[in-house]
Amino acid sequence: MSNDASERYRAGQTALLAVMDEAEPLVGHWRRRFDASASAGVPAHVTVLVPFLDIDRMDPGVMDVLTVLIGEHSPFTVRFDKCQRFPGVLSLAPTPDQPFRALTETVAARWPEAPPYGGQYAEIIPHLTVAHGRQTHVFDDVEEHLTAQLPVTAEVAAVSLFVSDGDRWHRRAEFPLLG
Questions:
Q1: Which residues contact residue 133 at a Cβ distance below 8 angstroms, ignoring those fewer than 6 apart?
Q2: For residue 4, is pLDDT > 60?
């Protein structure tokens, strides 16, 4: 998810997320403290595409196309066994990450007007954000605690559509990976 509050809370914005329920016991505490999207209703996840189409464009035809496109991908198991950092962000790195890249590329190819992260970054780097906008020593402490409890494994069997109401994000639909 975006770290920019104006993006995170814009009513009608949507996001496609692979929810990582299995990671929540490990990262939930840290995300509630250091990732504002957690308190806005976003569970532990790896982003597939954000921002996606505004909710007023999410008609039955779009939903049907998403069902088909995402359904063409096979469910997979992902393992988080290390932390990674980007400027201002501490996250868990998924292995493998290619299935997430493939999902993002598939959806973005169909809707080029909705590039990953609004076209902000040249490369898609799948990750599960744990903390952002903190000083290095905070990241160091969180990473030390997380590393001692890794790995965590998750099953990815669906991509969820989340919609912002301006304050919180709500899960609106789920698209199964059927392969």
A1: 3, 34, 88
A2: no
